[in-house]
Structures are given as structure tokens and as C-alpha cells.
Amino acid sequence: MKKTKLKLKKKTIMIFIAIFIFLSIGIYASVKIYQNIQYKKTNEYKLLNIGYTLEEIDLLEDKLDNEYIDTLINKEKDDYLLTIIQEKYFLKRNITRYLEYHEKYENTNPSLVIALVNTNNDYKYYEHDIDTDTSKEELLLVNKYYHLTEDYVPEDLVKVSNKYYYGENHQVREKLYNAFINMWNAAYKEDIYLIMNSTYREYSEQLNVYKDYERSIGSIEADKIAARAGYSEHQTGLAIDVFSTKYTTTSNFKDSDAYLWLKKNAYKYGFIERYPEDKENITGFQAEAWHWRYVGVEVATYIQENKITFDEYYAYFIEK
Ligand SMILES: [Zn+2]
Q1: How far is the CA of 230 from the centre of ligand 1 (A)?
Q2: What's the average model confidence in pLDDT over 140-152?
């Protein structure tokens, strides 16, 4: 009697175990099937199917918005896209414009595409017009896309002593002036005699400068050498034209020891060469060895070390 009971109990336990195993396998399989269906809906699965590797997918997810990645799953694998997103100054807000630019000018190298688009050079001068943000202080940007209003006058203009400028009534912003005096003293110790040649210029004055050029050489040529009113850095009070007492023309200053000295040392005082040679396509201006812009020591040092223009710096670090 006892034996039969025990046998029955054993049987029941076995049945329970069997049911348990059966159910577990069933649940496990269902979960797996479900997971698989869900995975196939993911961008990762779809991108792998197009030909991107897992590493490349990580990169896309790191550099681009999900909404943009959603658009990739219906296209072929794009190797140029993978190249451009790895560029140092890549900005995801410009992704569509980089690709459009590349489509138009296939042979432009990726770093240049980044630099040109970041600085709006995929648009025509004066047609993509932005009121510049004057709250940026010494980092405010003025170029052929960013302009000052007609009534903009910097608040802290100070008069320049005729020790640093031949003539009266020339003004610059105070922070530039202090930095310039420090720089002047350092240069003087090395027998370099710097002299300012152009300082703060008000809107109406720039209007006359531009109009004079326009009358004599036409607007296309005038645009190459002079800014239109509102688009000149001289209106910021943060830019000066510098010569040395020995070299006082725009044609010979670049051959002077003063220019070489400035190239090597000006950043230590917060100044940058604003329109360097070979950067005309980015700055919109032919090289001007004499035009120096105050941006502060930290930014000037970065620009000096990384050999970029202020326009590129602004797009990447300030406007971001
Ligand atoms: Zn200038």
C-alpha cells in the first residue's frame, strides 16, 4: 500500500517537471522569436543589411541624429558620409549641406568641404545674411555673411595715442588697445616699430570706402578688396591695420620683419592675422598682411596652433 502511494507521488512529480520543462522551452522560444522580430525592426539590422559594419553603425549613431539615420535605411551604403562625419570640425547641423556640396564639387577634399560649408561659403556673399550676435564681445563675427547694424557702435572705444598712430581722433576698443600696447612694447624690445594705420571705422565711413572702390573698379572687384558697410571688421573696433614705421604700404608690409614678428608673436597678445594667404575661399578676402583682429589670447592661441581661420573657429566653437 505504502509503495503504491510513493510510486504515484513520484509519477506526479515527473509529470510536473515535464510540464515545467516544456513550458520553459516554449516561453524561451517565444521570447527569442519576439526579440528577433523586434531586432529586424531596428536601424542596426537594416544598416547591416545595406552593408555598414557594426563599427560604422556605432560611428553613425555617435555623429548623427536618429532622424537622419532613419533616412539612411532606404539608401545605398554611403562611403563619403562615413568619411565626412569623421572630420575634425564636422557639425551635424550641416550634414545635408556637406553632401550637397560634395555632389556639386566632387573633387574638393573633405576637410575643405567642412571648412567651406561651416563658414557658409556654399552660399553667395551677402545673400545669406545674418545679424551678428554682438553679445559675443571680442568673439563677435563680421564677414560677408554676418553683419553689424548701421547704428552699431562699440561701447568702450578709447582714443589711440599718437605714439601708436600718426594722427588724431582714432579709436579702438579698450581691450584691444591694452593688448596692443603690450604687444607694441614686446616688439619694440626687438627693434620692431609697430604703427596703427586704420582703427575703428563707423558705418558711414565704410560706406564711403566701398563706394569709392565701386565707382572706380565696379562692384565685383570692389567686393574682393573692401567690405560693404556693416560687413567690415573695422566697425567692431576690434580690428586694426598695422604697419611698421619702415614698411608703410599694403604692397610691401608682407616682406617686413614686423610682419614676420607679428606672425610669430601676435597671438600671445590675443591678435590673429584675419585674412591669411590661401584662405581667401574661406574668409572671402584676399590676403591682408596688415589687418589684425583682437580675439583674446586663448582663442588666438588655438587659431595659431591649428591654422584655421576665425570664421571656422566661430562656426565650430561659438555658434555650436
Ligand atoms: Zn583692415
Answers
A1: 14
A2: 97
